[in-house]
Amino acid sequence: MAESAVRRKHVPENMTVGFIGSGRMAQAMAKGFISTGIIKANHITASDPDPRMLKHIASLGVTTTENNKEVVNKSKMVVLAVKPNIVPPVLREVSEVVSKDKIVVSIAAASVLAPGSKSLPEDKDLVSELLRCIGICETGSEGLLDAVTGLSGSGPAYAFAAIESLADGGVLMGLPRDLATKLAAQTLLGAAKMVLESGKHPGQLKDEVCSPGGTTIAAMHKLEKGGFRGSLIDAVQAATNRAKELGAKK
Length: 250
Prior knowledge:
Blueprint: H1 2-7, E1 17-20, H2 24-36, E2 44-47, H3 51-58, E3 63-65, H4 68-74, E4 77-80, H5 87-94, E5 103-106, E6 112-113, H6 121-132, E7 138-139, H7 145-153, H8 155-172, H9 177-198, H10 202-208, H11 215-225, H12 228-249
Parallel strand pairs: 1-2, 1-4, 2-3, 4-5, 6-7
Keywords: Amino-acid biosynthesis, Proline biosynthesis
EC number: 1.5.1.2
Protein name: pyrroline-5-carboxylate reductase
């Protein structure tokens, strides 16, 4: 009961949320809102041009439609869960029904909350509470969003590539593909949890598993020679610069 009361500090009982775009992110958010009890399923409306996406999100008990304006009309908070290049035309489409009492949140390419210049403090508190209940919200300035996109928005692709490459290495050394993939994914999952839960610097954790003259330091030597860390840094830089270019075109 105490946890529920905390969650309801800024979110009213009759809070309504709409998703324009019903892909995986919208589905995950809707499922989180419903499972935590912070938003009722019948208080959520979602739209998407793809019937398959609507079918998936409808299975959660939410109302679905193909009309974006209907989503706005029914919702206090409207979440733009579409790709960055789709945001401008969607905003133009629904602009005539977006009133001052609506809160519009874009999750096109980031999971850091950056309040707009015209947003109210209570708007930030409400959105932050909603997003924190499903564990995907940090707060930062709007100027950081391109870098957040380069790291966090595009980051899953880097992780997928790492898992695939580790699995390929396992297969090369004789492991069955399914086992190699599971081991690779669990390895990254476990390492990520250690960083988040231990509070230690990643470099310290790396040093702790590199025994003198052992297998891990030999592998790290090979990765350093191949420019592993530099390549990841370059990837984040390239994605950030691309995000800036896309933003400039809006």
